[in-house]
Amino acid sequence: MSDGAGADSASGLIPDLWSAADRACEDELRQAIATGELLPALLAIEGADADARAAVEAWLSARAERVKELLAEGESSSVKRVVDALALALGREGGLAGDGGNYYAVDNSKLSRVLARRAGQPILMAAVWMLVGRRAGFAVVGVGLPGHFVVGVEGKIVDAYQGGQFLSLEQCRQIAARALPGRPFDQSWLAPASVQVMVERVLRNLANAHRQAEDDVGAYRALRLLAAIMPADGPVQIELARLTEEHGAWPDALAMLRGIAARFAGRREGQIAELKVMELESRTRVLN
């Protein structure tokens, strides 16, 4: 990064890391969370352009119409028939399937790429089921089990990643136990997940995928979006400041750390920030 990395910090922009387009995506993401709209939130996360957005809208609408057609062929719309219709329209006909071979790929956390590749992680698979199911007129919600995101379809738990497999309460307990050994099952894990919760989970997955791909700029963008919607999460704020410093934007990192020290005074994150502030101030004096 150039020495002028923090030159535009007053506007919140850091050349090579955080552009005006990124700021616009952050604004869109905040608005989508405030209004509880999943689709614009996911498109903002990846920074989808107009063509990608149009392709996503067309694919979701076409699949929703196909679900309606399938259900119109029978006299009733039981939960099983709804799930079967979604599984057929999205999976066997639509080609959508969980990506077990390249699970941590960056594209698995980007909706437009998931639809283009017809593969994704559990939470993006669940999101597609939600978006299509709701367009078809059914109550499909996200369910954030520890370690594995699933959906609720008309009150029944379904694993979208596994193509629409129904899950019993005992199977949900087993999934949670694998992710959190020794922890008692919390019934609240079966409650519908908010858009905020889903966005947080997608962004954490995306940041991790970028790190594994050694894409520091991508990781920074994902983490900055996460920090923007989670201002009370001290560890996330500290990690963003650390990445900002690593990229050479010391003035911005220093400003972030001062803010963290003030907001988290008396807590571990505040103490860490105070020490880093002293270190960066000392380093800046030496360089000047």
Quick take:
With 288 residues, the chain is an alpha+beta fold. It has helices at residues 20-35, 38-46, 50-72, 79-92, 111-117, 122-135, 169-179, 195-212, 216-229, 234-246, 250-263, 268-287, and strands at residues 97-98, 119-120, 140-145, 148-153, 156-159, 165-166.
Report, as a whole number of angstroms, the end-to-end distance: 19 Å
- Sketch the topology as an H/E string, one letter per element: HHHHEHEHEEEEHHHHHH
Structural class designation: alpha+beta
Low-pLDDT ranges: 1-11
Total of helices: 12
Strand content: 5-15%
Average predicted confidence as pLDDT: 91
Number of strands: 6
Gross geometry: elongated
What is the domain total for the residues? 2
Q: What is the spatial order of strands in the main beta sheet?
A: 3-4-5-6
Helix content: 55-70%
- Biggest sheet statistics: 4 strands, antiparallel
Rounded Rg: 21 Å
What does this structure look like?
With 288 residues, this protein is α+β, with helices and mostly antiparallel strands. It folds into two domains: 1-16 and 214-288; 36-193, no CATH class. It is 60% helix and 8% strand. It is built from twelve helices and six strands. The strands form two sheets. A four-stranded antiparallel beta sheet has the order 3-4-5-6. A two-stranded parallel ribbon has the order 1-2. Strand 1, helix 5 and strand 2 form a beta-alpha-beta unit. The two termini are 19 Å apart. 40% of the residues are buried. The model is unreliable at 1-11 (pLDDT under 50).
